[in-house]
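> agent: user asked for a holo structure of the chain below bound to zinc ion. Plan: (1) validate sequence alphabet, (2) canonicalize SMILES, (3) run complex prediction with ligand conditioning, (4) return tokens. Step 1... ok. Step 2... ok. Step 3 dispatched.
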Amino acid sequence: MNVKSMNVVGVGVDSETRCSHYHTEKDIIAIKFKCCETYYPCYLCHEACADHPAEQWQVDERHVKAILCGHCGEELTIEAYLNSGSRCPTCQSSFNPNCQLHYHLYFK
Ligand SMILES: [Zn+2]
Ligand SMILES: [Zn+2]
Ligand SMILES: [Zn+2]
């Protein structure tokens, strides 16, 4: 599957969904924002490119597929992502564990 076909919006997005804000080897996830149902690599990209404030997913919406692995293109539910141990369950790529510091920006 071609990740580029998922149409991730942001600043300086590369083929594995890194952006100009977060671009280490492990910054390979994109998050779909509830407000616009659009994938962005990070909240700063949303801030830069969207014309509205970001909305967070609610606790009862963890079954929604809102996380994209930029390596293999698999979409994960929020629940699966939170239980993934910072590793893609499909391709085993490591995700940046520091993303956990920002969970509150994306999920309740
Ligand atoms: Zn939005
Ligand atoms: Zn960004
Ligand atoms: Zn993956």
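> agent: step 4 complete. Summary for user: Residues 33, 35-36, 46, 50, 52, 54 surround zinc ion (ligand 1) (CB under 6 Å). The chain has a mean pLDDT of 93.
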